[in-house]
Amino acid sequence: MISSIAVLVAAATLITGQTPAAVSAGQEITLARGRLFAPAWVNGVGPYPFLIDTAAPYVALDAPIAGALGLPDAGKPEEADGFSAHRIRIQALEVAGRPALECSAYATDLAPMEALYGLRVAGILGLPGLPERFLLDCEGGRLARYPLQMGPEWIAVPISTGSDGVMRVPVTVNGEHAVEAELDTVFSGTLALPRNLLEQWDLFTEHTPRLEVADGAGSRGAIQIRLPKCTVGPLEVETPLCEVLENGAAPQLGMRFWSRFMPALDRAAGTLHVLPLVPLPWHDPPVHSAGVTPAGQRGGLWRLFIAEGSPAQRAGLLTGDLLVSINGMDMAEQSFDYVHRALTGQPATALEIAVFRSGEVFAVLVAVDQAL
Amino acid sequence: MTRRLAGGLSEGQRGPVPKAMVSTRFPADMLAEKIP
What we know:
The complex is a heterodimer of chains A (about 375) and B (about 35). Chain A has about 375 residues and is mostly beta strands. Chain A contains six helices and 32 strands. In chain A, the strands form four sheets. In chain A, strands 13, 14, 15, 16, 17, 18, 19, 20, 21, 22 and 25 form an eleven-stranded mixed beta sheet that branches. In chain A, strands 26, 27, 28, 29, 30, 31 and 32 form a seven-stranded antiparallel beta sheet that branches. Chain A has a six-stranded antiparallel beta sheet with strand order 1-11-10-23-24-12, with no helix packed on it. In chain A, strand 27 and strand 28 form a beta hairpin. The radius of gyration of chain A is 21 Å and the shape is globular. By secondary structure, chain B is mainly alpha-helical. Chain B contains one helix and one strand; from the N terminus they run E-H. Chain B has one helix spanning about 30-35, and one strand at about 15. The N and C termini of chain B lie far apart (about 35 Å). The interface of A and B includes residues 301, 311 and 348 of A.
């Protein structure tokens, strides 16, 4: 669920619509920063990149596109999922080869999401916009048709659907703590649990090893920890990576999990089957990091977020330093993904990071090691 | 882990930036002007 989209006044660049194209057995989707984007056609115009959000009980369209398509704002703006939006009606929303659907949607300014995902987001494809049955094939990059024939390799996972339509799966942490987690394609990690639950279970204390990464907004760090194990329905996961959410937030299972279990959902029947792409039990792999992540741009240079206690901090880097180069590779005006890859490095290596701070350019050598 | 690169930098040590490492788009002397 998108819970913290700052409503910023930004000069929105309209994404130009092209000729409608036919979609058939499945539709290519794009994986960007661990999130899925599907091309969608709005009233016959497109394709527009829509963020697939299985935890959003709504469809949203970027306000400038809604205006250009003659879908004017009506009535007073509403607060929806943390952003201000107008209700609109889309006569025909086409995605993944299913028949065009008439649906209600929110028109809102999605320009701030470009900083989060590195591409212009034209809309959010929440549950009302998704097909009733679909298969998320992240490796193949397809939002595909639901498999009609399922062999024994497919594993049934129980789901419950709330009154908001959001699907939840039963998760047990360390064999003793049971919660229901939202199937959330916008959360890039494995599992996310609220801080108060983790503290109550003694799984998050001041001594718990953690990794901080820049959150979407860039100025704060999202905290990740390791849990000993969890189960998702019948699936066992060893050492799951867990993000610590604010108190009271809803538990989530994200793309680091779903991209390895290829979910096939039949929402009408209330069934979820997964095809594990990994040996079971799944060992959630370690994260190697220098403790430095890109967090927003300034003048074409990436601003760095430096985790507390990380090799990058020990090496003398500060949050706010502007990245010039990594191992001699120029990082000015590069994409988030390019910079992120360059900063990730290989385990037990070092990165020579050159930064600009207070009118000076200098380099430091930063270790990359198993961070969590 | 301590590593020495050709320039003699060891882990955490702050050093000057070899010319080859400075952004070709924004040379060091232009950065202060571009980003005050």
